[in-house]
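debug: dumping io for the single-chain case to check the tokenizer round-trip. Nothing else runs in this session.
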Amino acid sequence: MPANLTPEYFAAEKEYRSSSTPGAKLAALQEMLRAIPKHKGTEKMQADIKRRISRLRKEQQRKGGPRRSAGVYVKKSGEGQVVLVGPPNSGKSELLACLTNAEPQVADYPFTTRLPRPGMMLYENVQVQLVDLPPVAEGYVESWLPQIVRIADAALLVLSARNDDVLSQYEETLRVLQRHKIELYGRREPEDLPVGVEPLPTIIVATKIDLTNAADNLAIFEEFYGERFEIVPVSARDEESLDRLRRLVFDKLELLRVYTKAPGKQPDREHPFVLHRGDTLQDLALAIHHDIAERLKTAKVWGSGKFDGQMVNKDYELQDEDVVEIHAN
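debug: decoded output
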């Protein structure tokens, strides 16, 4: 179905592409969402605009600093902040220790984690911050926890596949967070959420998959929720499962890496510019320097299925691991 975009939408999109501040970009995105025709042919575009609006709002919340009423705050580090949420004894702390450089306290008794514990996860050449949080359960939620979850970029809902009651623990965790106006979602972002409810992209991590009864419990859980969420079984003893989770976290954050090069030189592949899916050459130029963005005309691109050195304009949509040679006046 054709999108049949209106002149008002194209004007707002042009304003978004040319904006250099988060506030101006947010205003333009909101106008794009208002002006876009609402039908099946634009559903993916609407979802993309909503994700961008949510991302910019979270960035503005973080820049506003910690809320005094919350009492606890985790400063964002790396290219994304992902919170680990789940019921008691789900294996969150052990997962953090396996994926990052952090050394949390790991024990068999519940409520071991009482304060947020951040750690840095390396996926190839990109750092992502994981934050282990106290457990979520009926009658027990730290007062500061919902605000930290709300401003995160994504969540890992950690459940123990060894637990025969994993279905009810999953439902309880979602129910408690919903009361705090947080909606975890998996494969598809929910539409028409009430005002004030924060949608949070989520991967379900089934831990302790190598233990007794875990595989049977996981099969039952997947039958109920496998179409709704990506469900990743992991074991602290299986590095392959942990590597798969690292990749899925990178994808869930909708990140992409772009390497720049000077004419006749090789690109620096150790230190990419990290942007988001849907970002353009103009967004890359802004990430490098405002002066370059103002003088940007065209660029040559290697990768993305393009022929090597193809010339593109500033509206070109970047792809993961593109190599870009910028031409500016």
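debug: round-trip ok. Residues 7-63 form one domain.
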